[in-house]
C-alpha cells in the first residue's frame, strides 16, 4: 500500500492518494475484510493502484490498466465478455454478467459500481525502466514495481533480502530477441552464434564482414544501465549482470532502441519481443549447436523456455507493516486479472509475449491473499 506522499511522487497521478492511516487491519490473514484495503484520503473508496517501471512490462501492465479503468460491461465483446459478433479469449471460463473491473475486484470483496469507466478503484501505470520501478516500490512511491530483470540485480540485494521485503509476481515471459537493421538482414546476416553476439558487445567484432555481412562498421546499440532488459541481457548473454559492454549508444526504453535500429542501416540491438516492427529483423541465434529462431512454429524457437535469453516479467509488491503478506487486496485484484486464461491471452499473448504454463499460473495465484 502506498501513502499520499508516495502517490504524489508517481508521474501522471492526479494527487488523490491514500494516506495509509486506515490500513491498520491490513494484517488480517485472510485479507477478505474490505476495511483492510487502502482508502483514498477524504473519500469512501479504495485508492488508485499505481505501478511504474519497465518499458518491457509496460505493454502488459498498461493494457490491463486500460481494460480495468474502462470497466466494460459483459456485453462488450471487443474488450470483455461476449456479444453476437465476438467473444474474448478466455471468456468461456468466466461467463459473468458483471463489468470487467467489477468482476475481478469483487473477487477480493470490493463493491461493484455497474458503471462503464467507473471501476471500484482506478489503476495507473507510469513508464520508466526496471531499475526505477524497483526503486519506486522499495521507497513506497508506487504499489507495484514493474521489472523485466530480477529485483536482486536491479537493487543489488540478496535473495534473502528480496524474500524478506518483496513479493515477486511473474505475469508472463519474454523470449528476448536480438535485432539487426533490415539492410543487414537483407545482406545475409539472418543468424549469429552466441559467441559472435558476445564478441560484438564486448568490442572484439566491429565489422559486419567478420560475421558474414557487408564491409560495414557495426553500430552497437544497448539499453540504459538500470533497465531490466540490459540487466537480463548481460546476465544471460555475458554471464554477469554487471559485465562490461562496448556499445556505441544506450537508450532507456525499448521504443527508442526500435527507432534507432529503424533509422540506421548497420545496427544491432536487443529489446523486448513486443517491439518487433518494420525496418528491423529478429535474427536466429545458435547457442552451442541449437538454433533458436524468432518463429513460434520452428523446431527450436525463442518462445521456448529453454531459450537462454528467455526471462520472467515481474510485478513486485512490497512487504511492510501495513501489508505483512506483501500484497493488499487492491493489488491482488488487479494482479489476479493477469493470472487467468483471459488475462494471459489478452494482456500477454496479444502483445507478443509468452504465456505462463498452467502450473506457473497456479503457483503465482498462491502468492495472492485469499479471495473474499
What do these coordinates show?
By secondary structure, the protein is an alpha/beta fold. It folds into two domains: 4-174 and 312-365, 3-Layer(aba) Sandwich (D-Maltodextrin-Binding Protein, domain 2), CATH 3.40.190; 178-308, D-Maltodextrin-Binding Protein, domain 2 (3-Layer(aba) Sandwich), CATH 3.40.190.10. The protein contains 13 helices and 13 strands. The chain has helices at 4-8, 58-70, 100-106, 130-138, 151-154, 159-165, 182-186, 194-201, 228-238, 254-263, 329-338, 341-348, 358-365; strands at 49-53, 123-127, 144-147, 166-175, 178-181, 191-193, 219-223, 249-251, 267-270, 280-282, 284-287, 290-292, 310-318. The chain has a five-stranded mixed β-sheet with strand order 2-1-3-13-4. Helix 3 crosses helix 11 (329-338). The longest helix has 13 residues, at 58-70. The chain is globular, with a radius of gyration of 22 Å. The two termini are 19 Å apart. Mean pLDDT is 88; it is low at 3-36. Residues 1-69 are annotated as: Disordered. It comes from Halorubrum pallidum. Residues 37-69 have a biased composition (Polar residues). InterPro entries: PBP_domain, Phosphate_ABC_transporter. Residues 20-32 have a biased composition (Acidic residues).
Amino acid at each position: 500500500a502506498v501513502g499520499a506522499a508516495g502517490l504524489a511522487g508517481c508521474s501522471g497521478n492526479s494527487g488523490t492518494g491514500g494516506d495509509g492511516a486506515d490500513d491498520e487491519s491490513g494484517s488480517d490473514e485472510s485479507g477478505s475484510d474490505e476495511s483492510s484495503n487502502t482508502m483514498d484520503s477524504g473519500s469512501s473508496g479504495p485508492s488508485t493502484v499505481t505501478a511504474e517501471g519497465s518499458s518491457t512490462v509496460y505493454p502488459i501492465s498498461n493494457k490491463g490498466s486500460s481494460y480495468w479503468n474502462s470497466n466494460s460491461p459483459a456485453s462488450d465483446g471487443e474488450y470483455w465478455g461476449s456479444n453476437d459478433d465476438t467473444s474474448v479469449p478466455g471468456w468461456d471460463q468466466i461467463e459473468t454478467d458483471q463489468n470487467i473491473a467489477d468482476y475481478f475486484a469483487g473477487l477480493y470483496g470490493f463493491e461493484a459500481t455497474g458503471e462503464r469507466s467507473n471501476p471500484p478503484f482506478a489503476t495507473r501505470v507510469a513508464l520508466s525502466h526496471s531499475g526505477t520501478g524497483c526503486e519506486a516500490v522499495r521507497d513506497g512511491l508506487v504499489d507495484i514495481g514493474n521489472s523485466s530483470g530480477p529485483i536482486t540485480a536491479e537493487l543489488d540485494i540478496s535473495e534473502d533480502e528480496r524474500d524478506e521485503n518483496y513479493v515477486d509476481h511473474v505475469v508472463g515471459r519474454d523470449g528476448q530477441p536480438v535485432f539487426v537493421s533490415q539492410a543487414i538482414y537483407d545482406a545475409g546476416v539472418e543468424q549469429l552464434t552466441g559467441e559472435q553476439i558476445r564478441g560484438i558487445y564486448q568490442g572484439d567484432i566491429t565489422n559486419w564482414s567478420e560475421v558474414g555481412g557487408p564491409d560495414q562498421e557495426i553500430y552497437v546499440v544497448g539499453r540504459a544501465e538500470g533497465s531490466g532488459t540490459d540487466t537480463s541481457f548481460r546476465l544471460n548473454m555475458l554471464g554477469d549482470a554487471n559485465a562490461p559492454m562496448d556499445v556505441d549508444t544506450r537508450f532507456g526504453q525499448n521504443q527508442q532502441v526500435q527507432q534507432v535500429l529503424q533509422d540506421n542501416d548497420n545496427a544491432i540491438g536487443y529489446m523486448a519481443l513486443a517491439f518487433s516492427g518494420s525496418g528491423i529483423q529478429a535474427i536466429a541465434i545458435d547457442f552451442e549447436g541449437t538454433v533458436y529462431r524468432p518463429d513460434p512454429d520452428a523446431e527450436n524457437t525463442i518462445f521456448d523456455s529453454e531459450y537462454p535469453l528467455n526471462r520472467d516479467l515481474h510485478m513486485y509488491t512490497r512487504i511492510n507493516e501495513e501489508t505483512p503478506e506483501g500484497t493488499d487486496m487492491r493489488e491482488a485484484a488487479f494482479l489476479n486479472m493477469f493470472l487467468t486464461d483471459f488475462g494471459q491471452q489478452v494482456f500477454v499473448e496479444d502483445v507478443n509475449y509468452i504465456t505462463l504454463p498452467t502450473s506457473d499460473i497456479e503457483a503465482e495465484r498462491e502468492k495472492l491473499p485469499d479471495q473474499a
